[in-house]
Specification:
By secondary structure, the protein is of the alpha/beta class. It has 20 helices and 16 strands. The chain has a six-stranded mixed sheet. Strands 13-12-11-14-15-16 form a six-stranded mixed sheet, sandwiched between helices. α19 (about 520-530) links the parallel β15 and β16.
């Protein structure tokens, strides 16, 4: 009879299948663990490649204050994207400085004044490409600057003034009786000056050439406007001051101010509107300039370029449009009550040399004058007459058309008034300029240095023909030789005193050609009439031209 297991015994389970299952689980877990570890290693490798293994780096950006708020916002957005360039983590720092200050500093090439200007920028955004001309060839610009946004230069003025100019379709060269604000050094003045020059010279969209910049048409137009501005009791020193004066209600101030359209719209001033003169329109185009030199390396340049492209993207550039600027490819911005200017053509910036010539006229305009040029045609001037004539011709080209200029000479002690007059005084139209040029090129040199009687007679005629609308003067150009007439010093001074009239002031300016010789009597005449005496070396043509310019400006 067989025997059975006891009820208390447990049935055994085979270990083989369990071990197989455990092994499979471990293998699967190991595979996925290895896979996860591999992925983690890959992720860590990618992250390591994007970390600041070379440290943090600041992109220094300097921007003109007129567009600084928008650039500051975009710089903050750019930093928030955690940009990494050449293993550097990039942050941004924006510094608002008026662009003329940066132009001057970069052009000078001297040690950077961080206390006054902030750090030397890696990226610089000036008001316009017009300001970049002096930096050409200086090695301070990396690549070709491209515009971020733009706004046309127009005239800010009272609505009634705008209506009057619109009624005659006024151009930049024909602004009527407006007193135009031309503060020296302002970017708006720089751009308006070139627009006026282009219109006066018939240069179309430009650029204005050096020859055109020095032409009588351009210098005359600019001198008239700049003289009118500088003759104000208190000419505004900046464009901002001019805009404030425009709507202050104060008498004897500017009536039109070259300004950026966007700034006029942002002011929301009901007493001020905008007018765009006919002709090529200059643009404040806010170029992004990647600055070179001064220790700026490849990382800084790449960061500047990347941020520039970031600002140009459709999403980011909308911030400029929302602020009233124009952006290529986007609709014209809403300027509120201001009607946006219709731009028919834009003005191309002039070269550094042409711009400098124009700026010189605005800074030192030739005033509207009634002047008699009294030339020493004695034999003592034989060697110097050509240099004198060249200097006078050069200055007459710059003189406004409204000036009245004639030429007298003193061929002898017995000369009659008609014999002294080489070219009668007349406004400087093309015909008068041609007559003056011909006379200066064909002077007859002979006789004695009879300067005293000639000066006395010419001064008397000038006071008799006094023109209350102009600065009245006699310019005596003479050698350093002693006067050879029979008139004494006392007689000359007496004649000048007798002809003088405080209500009809005529100044006597004297250019003495030669370093030696006694000019004390002529100095007395000049001092007593409010004039100036200048001595020049006859061989120094630059000094000769500068002296003539000073005495006829």
């Amino acid at each position: 009879m067989g025997e059975h297991r006891g009820g208390s015994g447990a049935r055994g389970i085979s270990k083989g299948p369990i071990l197989v299952v455990v092994a499979v689980v471990l293998i699967v877990a190991g595979f996925f663990g290895w896979k996860a570890l591999g992925n983690r290693i890959d992720d860590q490798g990618q992250q390591a490649a994007g970390t600041c293994v070379e440290g943090n780096r600041t992109l220094d950006i300097t921007v003109d204050p007129s567009i600084a708020p928008q650039v500051e916002q975009l710089a903050k957005r750019f930093t928030e994207t955690s940009p990494v360039i050449r293993d550097h983590c990039i942050t941004t720092a924006v510094n608002a400085v008026a662009s003329p200050q940066i132009v001057n500093a970069l052009e000078a090439g001297t040690e950077w004044d961080s206390a006054a200007l902030g750090p030397r920028p890696n990226l610089w955004i000036p008001t316009s490409s017009f300001e970049l001309a002096p930096l050409s060839g200086k090695g301070v610009i990396n690549g070709e600057p491209r515009s971020l946004a733009n706004s046309p230069i127009v005239l800010a003025l009272a609505p009634e003034t705008a209506t009057a100019l619109e009624s005659v379709n006024a151009g930049w060269q024909s602004l009527g009786d407006t007193t135009l604000a031309l503060p020296v050094g302002s970017p708006q003045t720089l751009m308006a000056t070139q627009a006026i020059a282009a219109a006066a010279a018939g240069a179309g969209t430009g650029p204005v050439t050096v020859e055109q910049a020095k032409s009588s048409q351009v210098t005359s137009a600019l001198s008239a406007l700049a003289s009118q501005f500088q003759s104000l009791p208190a000419p505004p020193a900046t464009t901002a001051d001019a805009l404030a004066a425009l709507t202050s209600g104060a008498p004897n101030t500017v009536t039109a101010v070259p300004a950026i359209e966007q700034s006029i719209a942002q002011s929301a001033n009901a007493e001020m509107t905008a007018f765009s003169p006919s002709g090529a329109t200059p643009l404040a185009d806010y170029p992004a300039v990647i600055v070179a030199g001064g220790g700026i390396d490849e990382t800084a340049s790449r960061a500047a370029a990347q941020f520039s492209e970031f600002m140009r993207t459709a999403e980011q550039s909308q911030i400029f449009v929302d602020a009233g600027f124009r952006v290529e490819g986007k609709s014209v911005p809403d300027l509120g009550a201001l009607q946006p200017t219709q731009i028919a053509s834009t003005l191309t910036p002039a070269s550094a040399e042409a711009a400098a010539a124009l700026n010189a006229v605005v800074a030192n305009p030739v005033s509207v004058r009634s002047t008699t040029i009294l030339l020493d045609t004695s034999t003592s001037m034989s060697a110097n007459v050509a240099a004198v004539s060249a200097a006078l011709e050069s200055q007459l080209v710059r003189s406004p058309a409204a000036s009245d200029v004639g030429v007298h000479a003193f061929p002898g002690t017995t000369a009659t008034a008609s014999e002294r007059v080489v070219v009668p005084g007349a406004p400087l139209d093309a015909d008068q300029r041609a007559k003056l040029t011909a006379s200066l090129n064909n002077l007859r040199i002979d006789g004695k240095a009879t300067k005293y009687p000639a000066l006395a007679a010419t001064y008397k005629e000038a006071t008799s023909g006094y023109d209350a609308d102009r600065t009245n003067s006699v310019l005596l150009v003479t050698s350093a030789a002693t006067d050879e007439s029979t008139m004494t010093r006392a007689e000359l001074l007496s004649a000048i005193a007798s002809a003088s009239d405080p209500a009809r002031p005529v100044r006597v300016d004297v250019l003495v050609v030669g370093a030696s010789g006694d000019a004390s009597t002529l100095q007395d005449v000049s001092d007593r009439t409010g004039g100036t005496l200048i001595r020049v070396n006859p061989t120094d043509s630059a000094a000769m031209s500068a002296a003539v310019a000073d005495l006829l400006s």
